[in-house]
């Protein structure tokens, strides 16, 4: 992926490799599924660390106030997160890259307007929060997952961070 | 009707005037650049102030990013959760 750059028109854009587009589409679809499955009234579901991190306790020392806060905010927050993830998918386009045995697939331009940038920043965060939970990232940022997938998952985690940082710098400039 | 013991009642009366705060906690996931960006764009603080708050979160484990009435702080905490930051409400220190 090339760094995001701000265009004169106000949009930011970057070239993504087709494999990166597919990857982002795949993890974002999984995030949509997860978000869609969350029932904020389901205590067992809220006990899951990833869900808890997406919808943190607003009152860590007051379970009653925390539950009350969640009752008033969780649906709206989830709606927002779902809409953001859907917007990311939208910007990636629908089509899977067609296999072309002769030519390397060409990089794909990703162009984001101001609102799409906000959706991307938030969705990249949500993705990283969920992947960090899978990686068992400790408070110092060290992953503790140790299985055959851990390298791949770690690469995805770092790549998502790189995309997000590039986006922050592009709109900061 | 639930019984409230007298000490709770007194404590609440005393704390009525104490404002609430929005606390953002350090987490190992969110990028420093993103956290500073959120402070700047949401709270409208300068880049230098956003950087100072972000470093306070990073180095001290938490920072108070806003002070005010409970309703406003709940709105801020909800917004921070929307950004994916780990934020909570607390009473301001006396």
From TrEMBL, chain B:
UniProt cross-references to InterPro entries, sorted A to Z: ClpS, ClpS_core, Ribosomal_bL12_C/ClpS-like
HAMAP family: ClpS
UniProt name for this protein: ATP-dependent Clp protease adapter protein ClpS
Keyword Protease: yes
Adaptor protein ClpS core domain segment(s): 17-88
Domain of life: Bacteria
Family note: Belongs to the ClpS family.
Quaternary context: Binds to the N-terminal domain of the chaperone ClpA.
Alphabetical UniProt keywords: Hydrolase, Protease
Alphabetical GO biological process terms: protein catabolic process; proteolysis
Role noted for this protein: Involved in the modulation of the specificity of the ClpAP-mediated ATP-dependent protein degradation.
Molecular functions (GO terms): peptidase activity
Pfam families the UniProt entry points to: ClpS
